[in-house]
UniProtKB/TrEMBL annotation:
Belongs to the RNA methyltransferase RsmE family. Keywords: Cytoplasm, Methyltransferase, rRNA processing, S-adenosyl-L-methionine, Transferase. The lineage of its organism: Bacteria, Thermotogati, Thermotogota, Thermotogae, Petrotogales. It comes from Geotoga petraea. This is Ribosomal RNA small subunit methyltransferase E. Its EC number is 2.1.1.193. It comes from the Bacteria. Residues 16-61 form the Ribosomal RNA small subunit methyltransferase E PUA-like domain. One of its GO terms (biological process) is rRNA base methylation.
């Protein structure tokens, strides 16, 4: 059950679509009741239910409060396409660990080829509602070879700099780049080396794709006292 409702803000109203309206009915909210809502714009909204229809509902904004918490350094997570259950887990945990943006690329070893932004955004929104965070992270698909070296840490076992040192050196922003579950290809590794990317390994222990991602994000949050 969501802690917050997610909708589209239009003037002084928030519109809930069919799925959110169903949740509203399940918890037996009626016209005149108050509910908490978010729209992804960084504000918390206290609202009053003024319409409940078959396909949507309308909330009237009573009060809004901006989230006071800022998360630095800013984290941009870049993931290689992998099996959906693993991708889903990472996206959920990345939102919980307050990344500001997520990008997904099709690696040469990726067996998947996702094209629906909405599929990923749905997971992001569900996690926002459950964890009570009002700012939606940006999401997009990218080409790996458009990645810039600046502020980027590539996770791979063939490291060229120390993991802890790399994280401690992060300042305002960092891009965490993780290959697909089958790893980077030879050509992709050559691209990193030729362009002198900083390559780090989270440790000597061999980790699964999703474990390495969550461990790295958690370590950044801990060392930088980010949460």
């Amino acid at each position: 059950m969501p802690n917050f409702f997610f909708g589209d803000k239009k003037d002084d109203k928030i519109i809930l679509e069919k799925e959110e309206t169903t949740h509203l009915k399940v918890i037996k909210k009626n016209i005149g009741d108050y509910v908490e809502a978010i729209t992804g714009d960084g504000y918390f909204y206290r609202t009053k239910v003024i319409e409940i229809n078959k396909k949507n509902s309308i909330l009237s904004i009573v009060e809004k409060n901006k989230s006071k918490k800022e998360y630095f350094p800013k984290i941009h997570l870049i993931l290689g396409m992998s099996k959906w259950d693993r991708m889903r887990l990472i996206i959920e945990k990345a939102v919980e660990l307050r990344v500001q943006s997520v990008s997904v690329f099709k690696g040469q070893k990726s067996n998947q080829n996702y094209k629906s932004v909405e599929k990923f955004e749905k997971i992001i929104i569900e996690t926002l509602k459950q964890t009570g965070f009002p700012k939606i992270p940006n999401f997009n698909f990218v080409d790996l070879y458009d990645t810039k070296k600046k502020n980027t840490l590539v996770l791979d076992f063939e490291q060229n700099i120390d993991f802890k040192t790399a994280i401690e050196s992060i300042k305002d922003q960092v891009n965490i780049l993780i290959g697909p579950d089958l790893g980077f290809s030879k050509n992709e590794k050559e691209f990193f080396k030729e362009n002198k990317f900083d390559i780090v390994s989270p440790g000597d222990t061999i980790m699964r794709f999703e474990t390495a991602a969550i461990y790295t994000l958690s370590t950044i949050n801990f060392i930088k006292n980010r949460l």
